[in-house]
Amino acid sequence: MSAHIAVERGLHVRDLVEIGMGRTARRAYDLDDVEIVPSRRTRSSAVVSTGWQIDAYRFDLPLVTHPTDAIVSPGTAVAIGELGGLGVLNAEGLWARQANVEEAMFRLVRAAEEHPEDPTALVRVLQELHSAPIRVDLLTEAIRTVRESGVTVAARVSPQHAAELTPDLIAAGVEILVVQGTIISAEHVAREGEPLDLKDFIGRLDVPVIAGGVGDYRTAMHLMRTGAAGVIVGHGYTPGVTSTDRVLGIGVPMATAIIDAAAARRDYLDETGGRYVHVLADGGMTSSGDIAKAIACGADAVMLGAPLAAAAEAPGQGLYWTAAAAHPSLPRSRVAAGPDYEVDLKTLLFGPSADAEGAVNLFGALRRAMAKTGYSDLKEFQRVGLTVRG
Fold first, then answer.
1. Structure pTM?
2. Residues contacting 44, CB < 8 A, separation 6+
3. pLDDT in tens, 136-178
């Protein structure tokens, strides 16, 4: 049995349950818990648009890569851009620290082969590789490769290093800046130095900023009020890879988190008289159906990580991790084996596919889901009916 999810404009209904004497918690739902309701109308997928635009930059696919070295090199950022998405380089990753990234990747692969029962061995290798300082010359060269291809250039920095690295990134040609941490707020307070006030920081930049991740309405609204062009929902959760919930005990099921952020977007649009902030869903998506459900819940685009590790072009050579794996004292991601198949990036995104589980032809499937429910573009599809599993 399925119960219909009712989300009325301007009304935030809280489904609270008692978890003990005097303590209640909100019931929340993951993407696996919801399903899309077919409508009375269908259309051909040939007349469906998956395009979207953030600031002055338009993309044919609602795809932004999770900024991990496992799937994004300068070369793959170019390839993804040419296919209609946005590849995001990690400005604090291996391409900014290691002159020979191929050798660094080989060390990871060798550690995986030599220590198949010890996942900490791979994390230790990543921590060692990331202990090298960030070199502006290496970072500039990586960005130059993307810029010279003609695709949109995007790079990610952490809140801790945003103020320090951003001038060099802008000078190198970054067009969209992503300020991303596991959990982010409008003001990042550090032990030393001035706190990062995102509103002031964003206000001084001439490039659009995407910030996140968030998991609730209030934090999403706060980030929107900083002037961010986009807000990331989630922290790249992937079963068997990320461990923020186990390490920090923090997490919000993605369907609820996306819907809450979309409600903040709607209310902020009303508050400002028309300023639209994009919502990007990052995490909990392992199949094309999850992508469709994330858009249906209100996301304007998805940030994909692990599903792209199956691409033959992925620099991780069959391994996947997030940037949190390299934290020097509290890693929150494992280095895990990616999908046990390999396809070229174009096939992964557009097919054709012989896979019946939604792992290949990711965005062809999104177009089909939109067509089967009668919607012609992403904004319309965000209004599709949803049910929640009983």
1. 0.92
2. 371
3. 999 999 999 999 999 999 999 998 899 999 999 999 999 999 9
CA angle 58/180/361 to nearest 5° reads 50
Q: Which of 231, 91, 239 is nearest to 163 (CA)?
A: 91
13 exposed, middle or buried (CB, 10 Å; 0-12, 13-18, 19+)? exposed
- 3-class DSSP state for residue 255? helix
Helix (H) or strand (E) holding 199: helix 198-203
Beta strands in the chain (DSSP E): 2-4, 16-20, 23-26, 34-36, 52-54, 57-59, 63-65, 88-90, 154-157, 176-180, 187-188, 196-197, 209-214, 230-237, 278-283, 301-304, 319-320, 336-337, 386-389
Q: Count how many Cα atoms sit within 13 Å of the Cα of residue 39 in the half-sphere of its side chain.
A: 17
CATH 3.20.20.70 fits 29-389, yes or no: yes
- Angle, helices 136-149 vs 74-82, to 10°: value is 20
